[in-house]
Specification:
The complex is a heterodimer.
Chain A lengths: L12 E5 L8 H12 L3 E4 L6 H10 L4 E6 L4 H14 L6 E6 L6 H6 L4 E4 L4 H11 L4
Helix pairs in contact in A: 2-3
Chain B lengths: L11 E2 L5 E2 L5 H6 L29 E2 L2 E2 L4 H13 L4 E4 L3 H4 L23 H7 L9 E4 L5 H14 L9 E3 L3 H6 L8 H18 L3 E2 L1 E4 L1 H5 L4 H20 L12 E6 L4 H22 L5 H4 L3 E4 L12 H15 L4 E2 L13 H16 L14 H23 L3 H6 L2 H19 L27 H17 L2 H17 L4 H9 L4 H12 L9
Parallel strand pairs in B: 3-12, 4-5, 5-6, 6-7, 7-8, 9-10, 10-11
Antiparallel strand pairs in B: 1-2
Helix pairs in contact in B: 2-4, 5-19, 7-9, 9-10, 9-14, 10-12, 10-14, 12-13, 18-19, 18-20
The chains are: A alpha/beta, B alpha/beta.
């Protein structure tokens, strides 16, 4: 058995953030565990992140994936503020994901804001990790 | 002799980790400890209920969680619920209020009035409860991080309206330790947060002796991934931490324990939940009597709201949640809860509509009025299964509490994020078990609809204008109030917080001067600092 991870094999690195004031982190923590089990490196931010901190941490940690978990309904105003900050910081080549309590009627708006992967309540954990593997652009 | 059970049947283990047998007999009851703790309702150890006649005398209080937008809108929803026969109010606050931010704080933008009512100053409380008789309707405030301030506001509002605060009933959630485990509306670090809870208990014991300043919540710990046995065990460990904080200050247990109440969850296996509550009632009585030397029966009572059930409801086929809710309400009624509330069928999607909230209310009313649940006390008592499982659940809770103490106590385990990591690992396993079909969920991992349906859920609209109006109202209050009085009151809050004396008198004075939730919180942050969340997996 080879234990060597080739130099071309990059371990996918994810920032998993809890945006805004929402305190429901059960789902985010479950997803974090699923991502770790899938072999990804996960930086879980904890609660109450501002758009500024999400952008700054994404840049500083040089992540491949920026994932948000939102349960309390403020996903659209948050993402509207986050998008320009991610753009300013040159993070448009990263994979942007969002999961949580996201009404179907908001999905188009989230997609237009650059959130390609949308995982509303009821999504399977493997669907999230498979999607990341299939869509991430690692350098 | 029992007929031999076919050896090939699958072993069933309930969520709490106890084996469930296909048949129970008198022998099982004996082997689990017998009937000695069963007793009679209204008598120690209260396994069968804290009152002798229970619902025959008075059915459970029906108290749906409600609140959104500005205080005026919430006031209308309250009046709607009362007009429909609801007997208590359970107030939801928006997130800025819950974590001590004013509506004009930049961090509050987009969150004002979204998941509950927005409160900045006493003026908002005056509007929210306008026209509601506080002697007839008991009000429960779902507030934790900012609880000291909101309790002060509620008492000040009642006093202003001419009620005798000494006679005023009501409840605040005010259980900060569980906020660190689940729900997340903490503000200050763990230790000053516990002291602040102690301040509210001590203050109410003297000034508002009929008010329940704390409702210890197993509920959210269960939602975060705890088993039913852990739900009760952790809640009791937390309640003991608060009791110890107050006793340290020289109060006798009988001066405050009678006003402690509990908030528990009701989803899951019917029998496991009913036994959980029967076991919990006798265990709490025993703890209060034997460990704390309580003498008043009221100090030994496990007074509880048993309700919600959110963790058991599903996003898939949401109408089926109406059926689940009815069974959950049955659990609560069979368990002798003092108060009941139900999550509505659309809550995985949105804030309930008036229609869905009414379905929840009617579910409880049907049980009480049509189905005979209010006629006989503790109707499952004496069942071989129920008595055995009650004994076993009690033993399990004792074991978990002992383990918690052996590891350094609940305050330490919460501060270090150890309980959080444990329940979150369990939640992950449960999610995997649901996705694999190992843990059955109808409509989710079996009996799914052939094709996705349009779900009949009406989204609660978010009104930006209401948020703006709330900020305007705050500006208006700031312009009208006596600025000098406010700053001197706020200075006093800081002085008292830094000196480590009870901050409640200073907070009460500040809210009466129309100081805002955010302004008072700022003072406390200066003295206590802010909590930093331990990230542990």
């Amino acid at each position: 058995m080879s234990t060597q991870t080739g130099i071309n094999e990059h371990r996918i690195k994810i920032l998993l953030a809890k945006p805004g004031l929402d305190g429901h982190d059960q789902g985010a923590k479950i997803v974090a565990r699923a991502m770790m089990d899938a072999g990804f490196e996960v930086i879980y931010t904890g609660l109450r992140q501002t758009p500024e901190t999400v952008a700054r941490m994404s840049l500083e940690e040089d992540v491949d994936v920026i994932a948000l978990s939102s349960m309390a309904g403020s996903h659209l105003p948050f993402c509207r503020k986050l998008k320009p900050l991610l753009e300013e910081n040159g993070l448009t080549d990263k994979l942007w994901l969002i999961g949580g309590n996201l009404p179907a009627q908001d999905h188009q708006a989230l997609r237009e804001l650059g959130f390609a992967g949308i995982f509303p309540t009821g999504s399977k954990l493997d669907a999230i990790t498979d999607y990341i593997r299939g869509h991430v652009r690692t350098t | 002799m029992n007929a031999p059970i076919k050896p090939e049947i699958k072993t069933v283990i309930n969520e709490s980790g106890l084996e469930v047998k296909p048949l129970y007999t008198a022998e099982d009851v004996e082997n689990s400890g017998g009937y000695k703790l069963v007793g009679l309702p209204g008598e120690y150890p209260f396994t069968r209920g804290i009152h002798r006649l229970m619902y025959r005398k008075q059915p459970w209080t029906m108290r749906q969680y409600a609140g959104f937008g500005n205080p005026r809108e919430t006031n209308q929803r309250f009046k709607y619920l009362i007009a429909n026969g609801q007997t208590g109010l359970n107030v939801a606050f928006d997130l800025p209020t819950q974590i001590g931010l004013d509506s004009d704080d930049p961090l509050a933008e987009g969150e004002i009035g979204r998941v509950g009512m927005s409160i900045d100053t006493l003026r908002d409380f005056e509007v929210a409860f306008d026209g509601i008789d506080l002697n007839k309707i008991t009000v429960s405030l779902t507030i934790n991080g900012a609880a000291a301030i909101l309790i002060a506001m509620y008492l000040a509002m009642a006093e202003k309206r001419g009620y005798d605060v000494k006679q005023l009933r009501g409840t605040a959630q005010n259980d900060i330790l569980k906020e660190f485990i689940g729900r997340g509306t903490w503000i200050f670090p763990v230790e000053p947060s516990v002291r602040l809870v102690g301040d509210t208990i001590e203050y109410c014991a003297e000034h508002a002796p009929k008010y329940s300043p704390v409702s210890v919540c197993g509920y959210h710990i269960r939602e975060s991934g705890a088993t039913p046995a852990q739900e009760i065990a952790y809640a009791f460990s937390i309640a003991k931490a608060y009791a110890d904080e107050v006793i340290k200050r020289g109060l006798h247990v009988d001066e405050f324990a009678g006003r402690l109440s509990y908030n528990f969850n009701i989803f899951g296996n019917i029998f496991e939940q009913v036994c959980k509550f029967r076991a919990g009632r006798s265990l709490w009585a025993k703890i209060m009597k034997e460990e704390y030397a309580a003498e008043k029966p009221g100090s030994m009572w496990l007074r509880m709201i048993a309700g919600g059930g959110g963790g058991g409801l599903t996003f898939e086929q949401p109408e089926m949640n109406i059926v689940r809710g009815a069974y959950y309400a049955l659990i609560s009624a069979l368990s002798g809860a003092q108060t009941m509330a139900l999550c509505s069928y659309d809550e995985a999607y949105t804030i309930p509509t008036e229609y869905s909230a009414r379905i929840s209310l009617r579910t409880m009313q049907i049980l009480a009025d049509e189905m005979g649940l209010a006629e006989t006390v503790d109707p499952l008592a004496g069942s071989f299964y129920v008595e055995t499982m009650t004994n076993q659940m009690r033993d399990k809770m004792v074991e978990i509490m002992a383990e918690t103490d052996a590891q350094g106590g609940i305050v330490k385990l919460v501060s270090e994020g150890i309980v959080q990591a444990k329940v979150s690992a369990q939640a992950y396993k449960m999610q995997r078990d649901i996705e694999s079909g190992e843990f059955p969920k109808v409509g989710v991992n079996r009996y799914r609809n052939e094709q996705d349906e349009e779900h009949p859920v009406e989204y609660h609209p978010y009104n930006e204008d209401d948020a703006r109006r709330q900020v305007d109202n705050l500006d208006k209050v700031r312009a009208e109030r006596d600025a000098k009085a406010v700053s001197s009151c706020l200075a006093q809050v800081l002085t008292d917080a830094q000196a480590g004396v009870n901050v409640m008198p200073a907070i009460v004075a500040a809210v009466k001067a129309y100081a805002s939730v955010g302004e008072i919180t700022q003072q406390l942050v200066k003295a206590y600092g802010r909590y930093r969340e331990p990230i542990r997996f």
